[in-house]
Specification:
alpha/beta, 5-stranded parallel sheet, 14 helices, Rossmann fold, binds norvaline, single chain, 307 residues, 4-stranded parallel sheet, binds phosphoric acid mono(formamide)ester
Amino acid sequence: MRHFLNTVDLSRNELARVLELATHRQESLGWPLADYGVALIFEKPSNRTRQSMEMAVVQLGGHPIFTRGEEVGFDVRESVEDITRIMAGYHAMIAARVFDHAVLERMASINSVPIINMLSDVSHPLQSLADVLTMREEFGSLKGKTVAWIGDYNNVARSLAEACALEGMHLRLASPHGYGASDDELARIAALGAASVEAFDEAQAAAVGAHAVHTDVFVSMGQEADTNQRLKDFAEFQVNEMMMAVADRSAIFMHCLPAHRGVEVVAEVIDGPASRVERQAHNRMHAARGLLAFLCEANDITKGDTK
Ligand code: CP
Ligand code: NVA
């Protein structure tokens, strides 16, 4: 059974296949989810992920069922394993946004339907698919292009790094001391096929010559108690016009959203001509459709099968 818990659950060729399927509109994909349900469970709030996944399921002929985390109560109302086994009888796939990545691993270990990560403390692989799709639309092949990450080496950064490495890009990762990738993590990303991987403790230096400059919030969901400390620690890591000025002449700015203008990015950049955040967010739906179609292919889920 093929699951999607991390971007690297896909090989380089499979990532290319997902991105190719993402460019197909629903008619040509043959409604593989017709008559199926897909469970979407959220332990945290969402705009883009919920909307894009619901629409992607509909575009493949399926029926999405949104459920709040507290309704199912992972390990509170019943065990993660019981929830997964029961839902697998109703749905072709189960997708979840969770606080603890281990919950997704336990769901996948039941191995009865594909499990999809809609964001965990470790990774946000669906976001990374839209990120590379958007950069490909801009630049064509990404091999040898340079991506700069400015800020927290968090769930979004980890998945982006994996996707960019699979695409053969140069990676420049700038984070304050204590918030960056470990040496082991840098080696892991390099081994995935990145053209190069460099860590910086200064933001501006990482942006020099970059084709795409990415950032994310300084305080992720679940880290609210550390807000004051984080805002202090990240003060020098705001993406601003000076930083974009040292990037490549045709550089674009990207952010998974939601964004805080005046905190991790100035309004002049996120609302300026280099920004691709709207396109990036809209690509979440196309990328999700590509991923779901790929999982149907990979798991022999075809229209008309009955559970
Ligand atoms: N980028 C992203 O995952 O947004 P949501 O939290 O709104 O789903
Ligand atoms: N890093 C952020 C991403 C939100 C889409 C978070 O985990 O809250």
